[in-house]
Amino acid sequence: MKQTNSWICLQSQATASLDKPLNSVSLDSRGLAYGDGFFTTMGVIDGAILWQDYHRQRIRSHATALQLDIDSDALCIDLQIHAKQLQQGVLKLIITRAPQAVRGYGFTPKVSGSQCKIWLKAMPMNIATIDQWQLPNGHLVPMQPVIPAACLTAQLACFPPPLAGLKSLNRLDNVLASGELQRLNQTAPNLDKKFGEGLVRDMTGSWIEGTMSNIFYRLNSQKQTSATAEQFDNTQWFTPPLEHSGVRGVMRTVIMEGFATSTTPIMERPLRDEDLPKLSQLFFCNALRGIMPVSSLTLLTGEVINFA
């Protein structure tokens, strides 16, 4: 039976036909108690999962980092079955470590990793694909209408390896950043003034990503000073490194790989306060929305940087 807009529990990758609607979550859930798990959100068009190989890569890398036992190939087959049923919309997958006999935070180590609980929600909706950006490798990425953005005071936590870059269930910093963006928009006098995304710093003060997206930017070489040792071209795209904060998003990986063999591969470079007046282009991106070009960026000082 087709299930949409409700959570189902995939009891086992080997028993996909036994998918059961999820009516409740145990208070013993390690995902609920400790954020012990991860998630990924997948767009579906015409019954196919967008960027499925990249989501498979995320499942594998996160399972390794968190020491979880997941048959990613079997799981992806199951996800494709649900995508064909859904046809158009979004699949959200949450994977948590199964309850442990060990008291507290600990878990029983196993060579193959811990058993998991796997939840899936299918949500019908249209995924906009009117405009597209062709990457140097030929891949087409959806492009949304331009949006105004604002710098936020919220900051993202720093994590050690192997947690840095993971899309774990520990997302309180993003929750607070998103709340700040909503408060800003509540004070906007009209819809035209509402911010489509917010730019967030990490604990070192570098601007790292959006509240729900990664960022790419270009710098205006004409605004360099003679004392600037760094030289760059107006056509060069940069993205902040994510060694300690942020999420290595699927679309970020797609774009970086799309430029990898071009004459101007994307460079990882911190985005500092002093760089903001030098920005010539900026866009946010994620796996559902694709590219979100920025029309203007409002700084913490209230100054507005407009992009052509």
Structure description:
The protein is α+β, with helices and mostly antiparallel strands and 308 residues long. It has 2 domains: 118 residues, D-amino Acid Aminotransferase, Chain A, domain 1, CATH 3.30.470.10; 176 residues, Alpha-Beta Barrel (D-amino Acid Aminotransferase, Chain A, domain 2), CATH 3.20.10.10. Helix content is 19%, strand content 30%. The chain has 5 helices and 17 strands. Strands 9, 10, 11, 12, 15, 16 and 17 form a 7-stranded mixed beta sheet that branches. Strand 15 and strand 16 form a beta hairpin. The protein is globular and about 60 Å long. 31% of the residues are buried. About 2% of the residues have low confidence.
Quick recap:
This protein is of the alpha+beta class. The protein contains 5 helices and 17 strands. Strand 13, helix 5 and strand 14 form a beta-alpha-beta unit.
Offer a few descriptive terms.
2 domains, 17 strands, alpha+beta, D-amino Acid Aminotransferase, Chain A, domain 2, D-amino Acid Aminotransferase, Chain A, domain 1, 5 helices, globular, 7-stranded mixed sheet, 308 residues
Task: Count the E strands.
Answer: 17
Rg computed from alpha carbons, rounded to a whole number of angstroms: 21 Å
CATH topology of the largest domain: D-amino Acid Aminotransferase, Chain A, domain 2
Task: Estimate the mean pLDDT confidence.
Answer: 90
CATH architecture assignment name of the largest domain: Alpha-Beta Barrel
Percentage of residues in helical conformation: 10-25%
Shape: globular
Specify the structural class. Answer: alpha+beta
Overall CATH class of the largest domain = Alpha Beta
Q: Give the topology string: H per helix, E per strand.
A: EEHEEHHEEEEEHEEEEHEEEE
Q: Spell out the CATH superfamily of the largest domain.
A: D-amino Acid Aminotransferase, subunit A, domain 2
Low-confidence stretches: 12-18
What separation lies between the terminal Cα atoms? Answer: 50 Å
| Residue fraction in strands | 25-35%
